[in-house]
Amino acid sequence: MIAARAGLAALAAAGTLATTLPAAQAEGTVNIYSYRQPFLIQPLLDAFTEKTGIETEVLFLDKGLEDRIAAEGSNSPADVILTVDIGRLMNAKEKGITQTVEDETVNSEIPSEFRDPEGHWFGVTTRGRVVYASKERVEQDTITYEELADPKWKGKICMRSGQHNYNIALFASMIAHHGEEKAEEWMKGLKANLARKPSGNDRAQAQAIYAGECDLGIGNTYYVGLMINNEKEPEQKDWAASMKVLFPNSEDRGTHVNISGMAMAKHAPNRDNALELMRFLGSSEAQSIYAETNYEYPVLPGATVSETVQSFGKIKPDSLPLAEIAKNRKAASEMVDRVGLDDGPAS
Ligand SMILES: [Fe+2]
């Protein structure tokens, strides 16, 4: 199976995938194009094959996945697309490389706020966009996104680029809840409170808290789990130990969450098997495996959350449908430029 998988990737890299379709179309196979890393999805796929007898072939890409499927056109062997972030899922739909799935099982597993109303994409797991706070220097245990614009945090907040998908979705949710004008005022306040020019990834913000460069950072929940248990780079354990997770707006509308998700490829040659896989990914069995491997939250209500994630505290997700929030992504991106968020606090 591993050899077959490597074969698919090698052929795809050589651009010859479309001419080698027969093997990929064999009965009992499902072809997955994935932005999610192999170590994250392999335990799930093994469980799927064991349960259904359907073999999986994975093409992992870290960029250009949508363009590849579009270029392959109706010859594309892609059945299921696995990716992260609402921005990428919307982009896949807009590019016309997905198809509608109307399935009772899938729809009963995945809450409506985490799937496309037209069935083009479905959330598989959620991740909260939370506030990392210094244990040493921040006393409070609650916070709101709105409060990040309060001058009391002047020079105290660190974040990655405002144009990153994770922040764009957060800002889009601020627009959805407050309207553009108020959201822009808020963003100006956030900019004024930055400790430095937005840079690095989410984990770099935890590192900056550890180093005393800032008191608050904005980051996704799963990175905290990845840092706590990082045997490869144990210094990350210290970063995580220096901070606590604050779930913004727990006492009102809830914390902004984003999703990892799946979509059925438009020309899926193995549609039935693809549907089986999508049903499986929404099942409690798969949800628990996924959530455990990457410290995400299962999208299925009531599915098990890993102990590490439970240790952060309880999340109350914002219940506004993600599709509604995502409509404001473009406005959010333009706002980041207009406000000059990525220029940092001084300009
Ligand atoms: Fe991430």
Automatic annotation (TrEMBL):
What SUPFAM superfamilies does this protein map onto?
Periplasmic binding protein-like II (SSF53850)
Matching Pfam families? SBP_bac_6
Q: What keywords sit in the KW lines? A: Signal
Q: Which residues form the signal peptide?
A: 1-26
InterPro entries in UniProt? Ferric-bd (IPR026045)
Residue ranges spanning the membrane: these are none
UniProt lists the family membership as follows:
Belongs to the bacterial solute-binding protein 1 family.
What's the protein name? Answer: Fe(3+) ABC transporter substrate-binding protein
Organism listed in the record:
Nitratireductor rhodophyticola
Recite the lineage of the species.
Bacteria, Pseudomonadati, Pseudomonadota, Alphaproteobacteria, Hyphomicrobiales
